[in-house]
Structures are given as C-alpha cells and as structure tokens.
C-alpha cells in the first residue's frame, strides 16, 4: 500500500520533500512509510536523504497539566471568588504536589494572596500554561520564551524525529519487480524461470549449517598414523588386551622387580583377577636366570627373582608388553624379520593434571632383523617423524631398563621456538631378546610416543581433558579439521 | 628420573670452567643429563611457602636442578656429576679407587648377630679417613645419602645408610636385632633418651620419618648397631644416634649400610665412599671394615674391584653403524669413565674394558656400546645415518596382512559417522558405581575386574560396557543443541576364566540418541543399518539376527530389546530408564544401543 503510494507519487512528482508531511497528507502511518523507503532505497528504486528534526513533546507531568490545568490554575480555581479559604482547607482540596507548585506559581503571577486565609487577588485568570501545553501536543509552534519557561519547569522535552526526503533512484520503476528467492520445481515445469529475475545471493552471510556425523580428532590422528606405519611396511600388532601379567609387562623386558615403575604408585594392580594362571615355564626360567645371575654376556641384577611378583596381574603400563609377547612368539619359529606397530590404550596410576591422565594412547613401532644398527634407528625415526612434519630431530642419551642404547627424541618446534621431547627410542637389550630364543645377531630397534601429545600440538589444545574423555565438548568434535599427517 | 640440586658456582668451580646456561645445557644434552630448572634457594623456599614472587636478590646463589638417569647412582651429587663431566671433557683421568692396605687384625670389625636375619639381614661398612669437609661438601654428603635413600634404596626398604664420626666411637661394632623395649638411646636432633618403641610412637608425627616406620614397626625385634661401649650408632632404617653425629669438623667417617638386598647395599656403600674419597687425605683411598657373621663367615668391604669385560670391536661398531678404529673406541670409552685398552697381543678385534665400582649400571657389552655412541655423539651418528639412508628393506615383510579387528572397527566407525552420528572417546577406567549402580545394576562380581590400588574412585574398575561413558558425555554436554547423536567403538574388559590372565577385552559399538523424544525408532533404524552394512538381511529372517523384548534395569520397561545374532545375545537396546537419566543429570530423553562387534568377524 505505502509502496504503491510512494512509487506512484514519484511517477508524477519530482520529490517527496518530507516523509512526515507526506504521511500526514496521505493519511498513512509514518513508520510504515519509513520502512518502505528504506527497502526501496536498498534496491535503488529511490534515493532517500535523512531528515532530522527536533520536536517538543510533553513530559508525563506536562501531559497531566494539559488535561487538568496547571497547578497554579488548579489552585486559583479552588479558591472561592469571594472571601477566601483557610490555607489548611485549601491544602486538603489539592494534590500535595499541585498545592506546592501551585502556591509558588500563583504567588509569582500575583494571582493570590498567601496569608492564613488564601484569597484571589485578581478576578479572572487565563491558564496559559495549559493552553501552551495543548498547542505543543497539537504539534503547533510556540514562542521561544514560552518553550524556555516550560522546559525550565520540566513540562516538555525534545524528541528527535527522523524522516526522509525522497527522489527517484537509478532503478526507479512505478512498480517493484518480483525477484525469485530460489529456483523451484514449479518454475522449471512452467518455464517461468525464463522470465524471472533472481534475488542476488548474499555471499557475506553464513551458509546453512550442515548436519552430519563426525569422527573424534584423536581417532582421526590415530588413523593417519596407522596409514603412515602401513605405508612404511609395518604390521599392526593385536593389542586388545588391557589386563596383563607383571611377567609380560615388566619381567620379560628385563625390568628388575624393585624398579620404581613397578611400584603401586605408578601401576594399577588388580585385586580381581589378581594373578595370571599360566606362563611359558621354560621361558620363565630363562627370564628368572637372566634377572638373577645374567648370562648371554650380562652380569644380571643379582637379586632373588620372585615368581609371585611376576604372576601379579595389572593394567598394562605400555604396549611394549604386547611387543614382548610378539617377539617371543616370533622366536618360537625359524627367524623372519618383522616390522610391527601398535597404537592403543595404556594405564598409569599417576597424579592427573593438564597433560596427564590415568590412561592414554601409546604409539609404538619396532623393527626386528639381523644386524640392525643405532644408525638404522635414527634413519627410521627421521623417516617416521618427517611424515609427521618433524624433520629436524636430535637425540639425547637416556635411560630405560629394556633398551640400550636409549635415546630421547627431540624435535625443533618452529612455533614454540624450541626443542621439544617427542618420544623415546632405543635398541632392546640382549637380556630381553636372547632369553626369548631369538638368534644372537638379531637386534630390535623400537620407539614410542603418546598419541595425545602430538594431537594436542596439532589441534592447539592445552588441556588433555578437552581432547579425551567425557568432558570433551561435542561442539568441538564437530568442528575439528581433517588430520593432514602423512598426506 | 631423579633430580639433583647443585649450586651453579660450586659446580663450575669444580668443572674448572664457567659456562653460559646454553653451553651447559648443550653439554648436559650430549652427555645424557638434563638441566631441568634454574632457581635459587630463596625461590625454592618461597615456592614451598606459596609466597609471592619477590624481587630476586642479585647475590642469591643460583641452583641448577639436574635430571640424571635413574641407573646412574654415581651422578646423584655434585661431586659425581662434576667428575663425570670433567672426564667426559677430557679434563681428568679416570680415578683408580683403592682399598687401604691394612692387616686383618687392625681392621675395624662389625659383628653380625643371627637375630638380624629375621628383619634386615645384611650390613656392609667402610671408613673414610682424614676427610676434610667444607660447608658445600658436607651438605652434598648429606644430600647424596638422601638421594640414594629415595632411589636405589627404595625409600630405605632395601638399604639404609648411617654415617658416623668414628672418633666418638669405640670399635668393634655389633649389628643386632633386639626387642624394642630393650633399646634406649638419644636419637639424632633430640636431647632426650628414648626407648625404641616410644621413639616409633614419637616419630608418627614426624613428616619425614613417619614414612619409614612401617619397615620395622611390626617386627618383634628392631635392628640396631652398637659400639663396644653399647653406644647406639643407629636404629636402621629409621634414625642414627645423636652421639656419633658427623659435623663439619669430623675427620674420620664410619659408614654402615644395612639392607635386605646385599647387592644394592654394596652399590650404595661404593657410591658413597668413592664419591667422597676425593676429599680424603689419601685421595681415592678407602679403609676397609670386616663384617663377621656368627657362623664365622666374614667379608671385607668395600669391594672396589673392577669388573672386566671383553667386548668385540665389531659388535660395537656393528651395533652403532659407524666404522671406528680400536684406538678411537678406547679413547671414547675413557671419556665415559670406562678404562679400556686393546689387548697387548696386537689383536685388534677385542677391547678389554674395566668397569669401575662407580659404574654399577654397566651389565653387558651393550652398555659399553652405548657409552661409545654417547661419547662419539648421538647426533654425529644421526648425521652419518641420514646421509647414508637407513636400510629400508630391513625387517620388511614381502606382503602385509591387516589386523582384521582394527580394520573392521575403522569401517564401522565410518559407517556410524555416515549415519550422522558423532564419535566420542571415553575412558576405560571408571568407578564401580558408574559401571553398575548408576545404570541400575548390581555388581555380582562376575563381570568386572577390580583395581587394587586406585588413587581415586574414578579408577576402581575397567568398564564392562560403553554406556556410562556415553551417558557421562551427554551429562557434560547438556547445553549442546538437540538432538544429540553420538557413538563410540571401543574395548570393554570382562572377567574370563578361559584366558591366562583371567580377563579379556571385547570390542563394542554403542550409540545414543537424545532429543525432544527418546526416538527409539532412530536407534532401531541404526541397528538395522549396521546389520545391513555388515551384510545381514533384515530381521524377518530369524536365523541371522532379530530384536527380542527384554527386561534390563537400565532401560524403560516395554521399550527395550536384546539384539540376538545366530541365537546368541550380542547386544542391548532401549529407551534409557528415567532413573538412570536422572543419575547422570540428563534432562532429556535418550535411546541407546550397544553390541559386540567382534562377533561378526
């Protein structure tokens, strides 16, 4: 309605000088006119210029007096024309505020005598304040001095009025064209699409949210790492075995029974089932011997090895418990070289903090072959870590009960500007390999790291609980990018 | 890894060189120790008392906290670290430790009573004669004992060290085991006489010592060492007597180590005496003590003999992967405190290595090989290896077999995500309540493993279903827009008599829908979809799989069903019971299914 009026008016007239006057003249609501002008301006049918006007409107108090008369008027008319009225009585007749203001103003106007008995001083008065207020309410213009006086009494206040002056715009047409919001099946069938103009798409607005399923970021990284190992010719070890005996978790790795890692402070032992029922007895005997008195060129640890300690069940503290068993099984057949890997859960009875949990994923890789060297280990680490985007490596001598030499792996992190430890590595000790029955010239090079740490660095996560466990925000799982490792 | 605190300036004085922090860090890195932290005495105290960081005093002594390998007991104090680094840098020869040549008759004697065998059977002793302490070395002497107690001595359970001012005592000594009420003495840092049983009571409130009381507390007899005049030297492994306490002025130190593990006792004694013999009048010389058992057997300690090892040169170079001449190898080993020489015969294939008593970590030629690699420089080996390219064919199989369970799990995860579900990853460890009571179940002891030593109730067991982890995830994500559609593929742990360890893992798949309605039909459809992608026909064929109404407490009665495959139950499904939802603080209705995916393989 308003749109047709405006476009129609402009067809015959040069401009609408003032939207306010226009609305009044056409008998339309000014707010509707403004909305239409804004929309037409947006599509350049019209050019609109802002007009701002200050107008006066009545305050609540002003409105009251416009209806009931000014306080001084009310006061005046409350006084009988003849004689007068005692002050207390007059006060009772009026609102306290009206009485108070009325007294002051009427006295100022010299309308009344304010004694004990209040009486009229003049016969007749005109309530000019009321008249002025009514005029302002009507939108009439009044004298500047009167404005000042009313403003001083806080009976009127300014209000900014916004309107437009409107001319034809570059896209002016007497009637707005209909734009199609989208291409529809009906338009295709009717052929209407040929005559339709399509609404311009707002490429700055957000697209629709896409519903779908999502994989967990830790598992995305895990999958890429599995791919990298497979590409490097490594075979995955079956690690679906969280409950392990101390024997496979520690003793077979030549980890002495008094080693601190075997302490209850570090390892979850099981109350039920508390012990393992069977171990390969002849191998147990060889392991016991190498701990107690050495052999295979070793001095051993020289202590009394306890079978009870070896039988104790625990939640595996590392996947090396599985590697150990795989190597033992390998040794039971004629030797073939192997490359193995695994990525699975391990458990530590440690205090938890921002970067440590009681369970995490361990990545482990190992190569078993004749004549392997420390240089081969460094070479394969260089290959592996380069695929993770870490090609600047250096190695620090370290200690680990089942590897010798042992090396901590450091990678230079460009973002942090420093060397960070990214894993551990080494060659398995002969005291571990020879009791299994592997040939003497067979060496095993191996390395391990956690899955969580590289993932946290990759996705910029500072608290491990934001990555793993039930406190993870589902919203974050849904916005994680693909894992580009090894791509 | 143990951490040793040493004064920087004292360390540099001992090294005969001042390093920048970066230079020192680099030296540590090459040698295999780590500068863990740089601090000051006052900063440590401030930290302990949780005080605000104050303006650091210019002249506060800088302390280096150095992390050393757990098997290098010889590096547990400043003297040991400094000596190792001096030798590593070629600034010092490897010391030769000597037992003083004195006759058996004039040797100090320790008589061991048979009763000690029931509580702490071993004792080894030695004497440091003519020692000169200054404040730094005295503190280091005390710290070393502390570090040894914490590490190799396993908090004094295996070995406990006592050091005494020999000049206050009268030998021979006796090592006895007596009822606590028969032992009376003034312990270190006290002025009053205590009876041993009262002393144990007294120490229950001592923060440092109360940790050691359990070692002897429940024994009818306590180990105790006396001198000829019945002066108590120590009540091992708890406390020494005040009478023989060492001071800065002590000239002759008597050291006794009581133990339950003789090998470790000898290592501990050797570590203490070799390290501090450098402050003796006759440098690197230690006076022996004869330990005599009641059956007449006797041993003389310390045993400082070197351990000789023949290591083939080809083993060393073959394992490292860098060709090295015999001369080079011996000179590298000398820098690691291992005496090494080529045999005189001119045989160039074997290196004779003498392992000094300070290097108890050297057990096998592989330890020698590692020392060659460290002295040569790991990163030099790396440069050669990378230039050469590692042998990529080594260990490589001709054709690899995938691990079916992992591949299959991966495919199922992809299918679940394709169905519009989001993967979660919850913990294996949980409380028994999470696993049972929260799911309206009782633990009948037939399914779940029990952890003996959990630090918190969150680690009491390993989950026997994925349900509590998934419900906890929903409870933590209440603000997430509905519907919530999540799944998990993961292992549970079940008791299993047929397995060697008595328990087994099982791979499960679970999914949950949470919305304005429980939406069981969505979960039902998801089960059908999974069966479809596995290749099973729809449930009109009851020979493959079907849903059978069930009565499980975690689900609402009437809207729940078991999943039956080949006649066996492989899973559960249903609308989650409102009581269960409320226990997990979930305000919205949920449906859930879980099944064993391993059974499809």
Strand segment count of chain A: 18
Contiguous helical run count of chain B: 16
The overall pLDDT of chain B, averaged over residues, is: 92
What is the radius of gyration of chain B?
Answer: 33 Å
The percentage of residues in β strands of chain A lies in 15-25%
Structural Rg of chain A: 46 Å
Helix content of chain B: 25-40%
The largest chain-to-chain contact, stated as pair and per-chain residue counts, equals:
A-B, 102 and 102 residues
Give the overall silhouette of chain B.
globular
In percent terms, what proportion of residues of chain B is strand?
Answer: 25-35%
Unreliable runs of chain B = none
Kindly state the mean pLDDT of chain A as a whole number?
90
Tally of individual helices of chain A? 19
The CA-CA distance between the termini of chain B, in Å, is 44 Å
Structural class of chain A: alpha+beta
- Tell me the helix content of chain A: 25-40%
What summary fits the major beta sheet of chain A?
7 strands, mixed
Strand order of the largest sheet of chain A: 9-13-14-18-17-16-15
Q: Would you count the extended β strands of chain B for me? A: 29
Described by its quaternary structure, the protein is heterodimer
Folded structure, characterized:
The complex is a heterodimer of chains A (487) and B (601). Chain A has 487 residues and is α+β, with helices and mostly antiparallel strands. Chain A is built from 19 helices and 18 strands. Chain A has helices at residues 2-12, 19-26, 30-42, 60-68, 71-78, 87-93, 96-108, 128-137, 144-152, 185-190, 217-231, 246-249, 281-292, 307-311, 320-331, 374-387, 430-433, 452-459, 474-479, and strands at residues 15-16, 46-58, 85-86, 112-114, 117-120, 156-168, 179-180, 197-198, 235-236, 243-245, 270-272, 313-315, 338-347, 359-370, 393-397, 403-413, 418-428, 442-450. In chain A, the strands form five sheets. Chain A has a seven-stranded mixed sheet with strand order 9-13-14-18-17-16-15, with helices on both faces. Chain A has a three-stranded antiparallel sheet with strand order 1-6-2, sandwiched between helices. In chain A, a hairpin with a 4-residue loop joins strand 16 (403-413) and strand 17 (418-428). In chain A, helix 4 packs across helix 8 (128-137). Chain A is elongated. With 601 residues, chain B is of the alpha+beta class. Chain B is built from 16 helices and 29 strands. In chain B, helix 9 crosses helix 10 (365-376). The mean pLDDT of chain B is 92. Chains A and B meet through helix 11, strand 9, strand 10, strand 11 and strand 13 of A and helix 2, helix 8, helix 10, helix 11 and helix 12 of B. Strand 11 of chain A pairs antiparallel with strand 22 of chain B, so a sheet runs across the interface.
